[in-house]
Amino acid sequence: MKDTPLSNCERDFLLNAIGEKRRLDGRQTYDYRNIKISFGTDYGCCFVDLGKTKVMAQVSCELITPKENRPNDGIMFFNIELSPMASPAFETGRQSELLVKLNRQLERCLRNSKCIDVESLCVVSGEKVWQIRVDVHLLNHDGNLMDAASIAAIAALSHCRRPDVGILGEDVTVYSPEERDPIPLSIYHMPISVSFAFFQQGTYLLVDPCDREERVMDGLLMIAMNKHREICSIQSSGGIMLLKDQVLRCSKIASVKVSEITELINKALENDKKVRKAGGRCGFAQSMPQERITALKADVSPVEMAGIKENANEIVQRAEAPSQSVPSPVLPAPGTGQVGEGLQTSWGLEEKEEEEEEEEEEEEDVQHVVEEQGRGDVVLISDSDSEEEEVVILNQEALPTKGTLSKQQRAADSKQQRAADSKQQRAADSKQQRAADSKQQRAADSKQQRAADSKQQRAADSKQQRAADSKQQRAADSKPQQKNKKQ
Amino acid sequence: MAGLELLSDQGYRLDGRKATELRKVQARMGVFAQADGSAYIEQGNTKALAVVYGPHEVRGSRSRTLNDRAVINCQYSMATFSTSERKRRPHGDRKSTEMSLHLKQTFEAAVLTNLYPRSQIDIYVKILQSDGGNYSAGVNAATLAVIDAGIPLRDYVCACTAGFVDETPLTDLCHAEESGGGTSLAMALLPRGGHIALLQMDARLHQDHLETLMEAAMTACKSISKVLDQVVRQHLQEVSALTGE
Q1: What ipTM does the predicted assembly reach?
Q2: Strands (E), A239-342
Q3: Residue A100 and residue A56: Cα distance in Å, rounded?
Q4: Does the keyword Nucleus belong to this entry (chain B) (predicted)?
Q5: pTM to 2 decimals?
Q6: Domains present along chain B, CATH in parentheses
Q7: Using a CB-CB distance cutoff of 8 angstroms, which residues of chain B are in contact with residue A100?
Q8: B121 touches A at CB < 8 Å
Q9: CA dihedral defined by A465, A468, A471, A475, rounded to 10 degrees?
Q10: Which carries the bigger pLDDT value, residue A404 or residue B80?
Q11: I need a surface site. Which of A14, A45, A50, A128 has the fewest CB within 10 A?
């Protein structure tokens, strides 16, 4: 299933916002989203939340024969799975470019940097070595998969315990966790990747792009470092042209971020160790009551409220007041008004429209409209692409003024107003889909409202009728009474 | 590998080069008549062949057509006899796909694709003999092939590898130096503006050394661009002599 394409207006909005140094979620340029690291009940299972991106890594160990050219080394195998539950763009079975890219990046980041001592994984040289397999599953895609995957992988590797082995001559016994405590892997350092997204041919850069920002970016630069300020891997992707200074600047930013994230991972590992020692329920079993994986909850984020009233007042004052005059009302026929088409709205609206923008404009014009009624100089408009079956033209005298109209007539007027309004709005809209959809909606809605109004009318009619009838009745009753009285 | 000194005390490498010396580069353009553009390059013992078809109509899925620019389709493969041990490489394996993606990304940045909307340019690179710097040789060959095909480029795309041993940067690594476990950086550069089209680095390097390493790689790429420029001009002379201009 293909992903929904990003609309041009959304793209422009995002790029303009980035040009003004604003991000969708209010972060600063170099800020990461909230990172949450939690571990499962088994050793080697780790869940990482990077904002809304959720990733799960699981480490498993197996004894196999080593490669021929490296008989003393254990084997590390990395695998990232993009499951369709993460995003509608991912499909099962098909190896997409993104998948290959992520897999290779993770491999290069963790394997080539030699973060794990593979020689310690050797059991019998040339015959039996441990194969450490790291499977990373993507559960929810909201941008920056590489960082989340690298954090999850290295945290899972740090958390993992492999079974203890005993060697007696040629016999190799693998002890189960009950017999002997499993031993942790020997990890030299923790490489963590930091992603930088570039926009507008390298003018702007953002750290930790979310899904929307990733869609409009020009390219991505991934720098993997460890806390000792050693760069483990650099990879630029996308068609961006970098300059040497940009890369150096990014590496400085990355070193800061990596030290923060490494601390976070260590803290999480410490916590988990404590909980396990205390014998408490840990990991997956705790995730349900604490709603860690099951809920897509956003944390309470503080919002700057100081001076918000002054800001709002300022904006309102700076906003242009709607113009008081209309050059000449161009009316399609006597008694009807016009909305939009670049001219002043000359039609009073009392009902709510679906489009909020027009509603706001028109609400301001309502007061002026009532005064402008009854002006002469009506000009007939030749074009009328109205799709309405009935276009009822009102008489001049029947224009809405307060109090003089009966309820019936007002209902009829507003009905025609809406019909004329929606007609004009449709004419003014461009051929975008949104316009077409809202057109349909409005037709449907105005139809419904007309039905409702006619219902109201009938109800009003019947009410009046009943009122009239009861009046007559009372009159009729009182007449004989009077007659009786007289008599 | 113990005992293999990548940089001796006198400053010589395994094959006798100095630290920042490049290997001998020999190249030819217009190797095949069938293709729109082709080139062959030898960098030391690494031999690469590149062929360009295009711009032509988008083949395969029509949906890949872009309205405003050309699609670049790259395929990178190594011959089975290219390494010391014969390895049958299935085309879809991860390393080849990754290299193809990198090639595509590099040339999308360099080729003026907006001159050919709704069309496709194919670039095929084959490594005939691999002795380190496979990707770089591939990129250099592809640049020459694209120029041979007459497709406009922003600038020459030159690529080179660089490593770091004993506080000294080495350029244009051979296979033993690459797989020795030390740092290896691959860079594709557009020399005139100093724009880096692709940057890829493996293995650990301290942050402070990054600048030195990148500088060395950029200098090496600029030297290679001079060589490529010479090859192009010579080829043009030969061709124009044949056509009697």
Answers
A1: 0.88
A2: none
A3: 18
A4: yes
A5: 0.71
A6: 25-244 (3.30.230.70)
A7: 94, 97-98, 101
A8: no
A9: -120
A10: B80
A11: A128
